[in-house]
């Protein structure tokens, strides 16, 4: 099958929440020698983007999203071990977490997989993470980038607090902060003093690479 067609089918299988088909297509992509990293980004992640849009338009519901997420995780399981991390040429430590009061972690998990696959060293604090937890981990692990995720207008207000805390602790200059999640915008990121924003996982990877370069220049 042509690469474009197979990736399209992977996208469709994520949208349909078809776990078995996702696994099968991911295996087929490997058998046919296609790039597993591209399959993850252009096939699987694209499917989740479509589902979020459909949900917003009232064309999909929470159970549909959860099925799609499971299908995506299935394909990710198959693809991830075959991604050659050396190829992407990136190295950096990223700390990820969903802010306090928020348990939406599908987007963060997609991000984690794509960062893992791209060769970043990823520390995942999970969901509903207290600001102090972020701070303690930054002190201990010294990540290059902090990636904060929030899916609710009520929880996104936790982001500026985390950034303020870092400033107070003298850690702000040591880590680049990027933010994301459905209610977050470029403007919001700028307003709260974050260094970067991305609307989806593939772009988050690009933003992370850009921030890493900036950080190296500043050092
Ligand atoms: C699935 C879902 C759930 C699931 C979550 C399961 C899970 N394990 O995550 C369940 C059913 C548990 C749930 C619960 C609730 N939910 Co809900 N949920 C959703 C839904 C439908 C989809 C979210 C999702 O997974 N999208 C798919 C992923 C792949 O996309 P994503 O998260 O946006 O992530 C991408 C980008 O945003 C970006 N990204 C994400 N994080 C980051 C971070 C960085 C650093 C960067 C750069 C990029 C980035 O990259 C990701 C990958 O491409 C949204 C609707 C929506 N439009 O978002 C509502 C939604 C977020 N939920 C909502 C609500 C209100 C709730 C509940 C309060 C409902 C209730 N009354 O119980 C609870 C909240 C519980 C809590 N305390 O958190 C509201 C929030 C409204 C608001 N206040 O803003 C939404 C918007 C629905 C709505 N329109 O009302 N929910």
Outline, from the CA principal axes? globular
Count of separate structural domains = 2
Helix/strand order, N-terminal first: HHHHHEHEHEHEHEH
Bound molecules: cobalamin
Strands, total number: 5
**What structural class should be given to the helix and strand makeup?**
alpha/beta
Structural summary, described in words:
With 219 residues, this protein is α/β, with parallel strands linked by helices. It has 2 domains: 3-83, Orthogonal Bundle (Methyltransferase, Methionine Synthase (B12-binding Domains), Chain A, domain 1), CATH 1.10.1240.10; 88-218, 3-Layer(aba) Sandwich (Rossmann fold), CATH 3.40.50. The protein has helices at residues 3-16, 19-31, 36-56, 62-79, 85-88, 106-117, 131-141, 158-168, 186-191, 201-218, and strands spanning 93-98, 121-124, 145-149, 176-180, 196-197. Strands 2-1-3-4-5 form a 5-stranded parallel beta sheet, sandwiched between helices. α8 (158-168) links the parallel β3 (145-149) and β4 (176-180). Bound molecules: cobalamin.
């Amino acid at each position: 099958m042509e690469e474009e067609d197979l990736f399209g089918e992977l996208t469709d299988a994520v949208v349909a929440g078809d776990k078995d088909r996702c696994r099968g297509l991911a295996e087929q992509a490997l058998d046919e020698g296609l790039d597993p990293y591209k399959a993850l980004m252009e096939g699987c992640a694209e499917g989740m983007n479509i589902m979020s849009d459909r949900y917003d338009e009232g064309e999909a519901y929470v159970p549909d999203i959860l099925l799609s997420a499971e299908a995506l995780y299935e394909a990710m399981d198959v693809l991830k071990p075959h991604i050659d991390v050396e190829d992407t040429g990136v190295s950096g430590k990223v700390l990820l977490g969903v802010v306090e009061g928020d348990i939406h972690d599908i987007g963060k998990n997609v991000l984690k997989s794509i960062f893992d696959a791209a060769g970043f060293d990823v520390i995942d604090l999970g969901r509903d993470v207290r600001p102090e937890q972020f701070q303690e981990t930054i002190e201990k692990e010294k990540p290059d980038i902090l990636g904060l995720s929030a899916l609710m207008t009520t929880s996104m207000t936790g982001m500026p607090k985390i950034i303020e805390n870092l400033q107070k602790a003298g850690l702000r200059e040591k880590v680049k902060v990027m933010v994301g999640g459905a209610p977050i915008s470029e403007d919001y990121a700028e307003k709260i003093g974050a260094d970067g924003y991305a609307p989806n996982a593939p772009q988050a990877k690009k933003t992370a690479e850009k921030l890493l370069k900036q950080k190296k220049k500043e050092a």
